[in-house]
Amino acid sequence: MTMEFARPHRPGSHIPAEPGRPYFIEKGLGDRAHLFTDLVTVYAGGEQTENAFNFFTVEGPRGDVIPAHLHRDTYEVFYITDGAVRLFVEDLEGEQHEKLLTAGDFGFVPKNCPHAYRVERHHSRVVGVAAGPGGTFERFFENLGTPTGELGLPREPYVPEPHAFATVPQRYDVRFLPDHQWRTGS
Question: Cupin type-2 domain spans which residues (predicted)?
Fold first, then answer.
């Protein structure tokens, strides 16, 4: 039996607030948020893992490149379950890498490496895992975006207020790089 736990920013959650409790979540019923054109669903986060890792999915339509950013203390995994996603990563020596990932493909981004991605096919889904000494960043999505009870993509893109970009990312180990240029060709 799944219990629901309320949070100030969402009416109910299938995720227990405290660590050390086993739980199960049916497909799509994690904590959901809309951000731009995407649906982000969190299944496990810092609250449950004592900030060891998080587990979430991002689903979206074909679109623009997600802005370049980095995580100073967090490693990030991209595993594609549906569709296709182009991952851009710059290593610590400044060499840029680009790879089209399709269903079953995996990408790893070390901490401090600028990265971005672009959904290349409609209805693509990325399974994300992030871990590191700085904690986890899964609550970034609902704090920059907007929590939702809907199971699908937003009907209209959710664009955060400009002031949110100045405060929310810093709390979740996300540093946007607005002047970053990708030289990889795509």
Answer: 61-119
